[in-house]
Automatic annotation (TrEMBL):
Family annotation (SMART domains): HTH_ARAC
Top-level taxon: Bacteria
Statement: the UniProt record of this protein carries the keyword DNA-binding: yes
Protein's UniProt name: AraC family transcriptional regulator
Gene Ontology MF terms in the entry: DNA-binding transcription factor activity; sequence-specific DNA binding
Positions of the HTH araC/xylS-type domain: 185-283
Keywords: DNA-binding, Transcription, Transcription regulation
InterPro entries: AraC-bd, Homeodomain-like_sf, HTH-like, HTH_AraC, HTH_AraC-typ_CS, RmlC-like_jellyroll, Tscrpt_reg_AraC-type_HTH
Signal peptide: none
Pfam families to which the protein is assigned, alphabetical: AraC_binding, HTH_18
């Protein structure tokens, strides 16, 4: 099963750049392939087991565990069974900045944003209560039991409390991973820019001066997915976005997503999402709360 990737797409809105995503009971194994974004992200496991990889380090999260993805860090999530229930919270760090060039901004928030500092990816259950509060606030806002301004004030307070807890517990550390993922980021960027065309192992290997045999193994080892699976993921995500945001026909959507065979596109889409492209458009299915 496939879900959202970077994240060339914006998260949140101008009025509220805080986003929350909820994925539960996929019913089968899935992986959200490696990606990164400029926002700060908190991953919270509500139930089940979630495999999380951040900057090359892999973890297994259980109910109540939380993980932090600092801006720019490569990461992926997945489940072998699909029975996991988890939330992700994304926001730019300037969302909780007072923008006064004070010590908080200068010594903590800006270094976190620029990558000079990071928060230890695995914070276990240290953030359970705060994550549950964020979920409650967002649910109340969606139920229209409190105003958007009230919800935003409460959200910012909790996020600042989260940063405070990370600071007090010593989870804010020097970022020694900033230079490790350069090649991986270049690979992801190259594929994101060219996925609608044909990308062969030979061409991909030549681009990064690696043999076909090695590039295949390298990609699988670092991204836990094959190159062809990753390209398929991007094409289907692009198609899903076009179905949501445009009036393009299914045929045009397939062509603009890199598929030359429309029947194959429809089969692939249905296999990935459990619904045909046309029914998906009409249903308005979204993973975002």
């Amino acid at each position: 099963m496939y879900f959202e990737l970077k994240e060339n797409k914006p998260h949140g809105t101008k009025d509220n750049p805080f986003s929350i995503y909820h994925i539960e009971n996929a019913g089968r194994s899935f992986q959200i392939p490696v990606h990164w974004h400029d926002e700060f992200e908190i991953i919270y496991v509500k139930s089940g087991l979630l495999t999380v990889s951040i900057s090359g380090e892999s973890y297994i999260g259980k109910a109540g565990d939380a993980f932090v993805v600092s801006p720019g860090n490569l990461h992926l999530m997945g489940s072998q069974t699909g029975t996991v229930d988890y939330f992700t919270f994304l926001f730019p760090l300037k969302y909780i900045s007072f923008r006064t060039d004070d010590m908080l901004d200068d010594k903590l928030l800006e270094p976190l944003n620029s990558g000079h500092l990071m928060i230890n990816p695995r914070v276990k259950d240290s953030a359970k209560e705060l994550c549950e509060q964020l979920i409650d606030i967002y649910m109340a806002e969606n139920d229209e039991t409190e105003s958007k301004i009230t919800a935003q004030i409460k959200t910012k307070i909790i996020l600042l409390q989260f940063i405070l807890e990370m600071w007090k517990k010593g989870f804010v550390i020097e970022n020694d991973t900033s230079g490790r993922n350069i090649v991986e980021k270049e690979m992801v960027s190259y594929i994101q820019q060219n996925f609608t065309g044909k990308i062969s192992l030979k061409e991909f290997g030549e681009q990064f001066h690696l043999s076909e045999k090695y590039i295949s193994r390298y990609f699988k080892e670092h991204f836990h997915i094959t190159l062809s699976q990753y390209i398929t993921y991007l094409r289907l995500e692009n198609a899903k976005q076009l179905l949501q945001d445009t009036d393009l026909s299914v045929t045009e959507t397939a062509m603009q997503s890199g598929y030359q065979n429309v029947s194959y596109f429809i089969r692939s889409f249905k296999k990935a999402y459990g619904i045909s492209p046309l029914k998906y458009r009409n249903s308005g299915i979204l993973t975002k709360i």
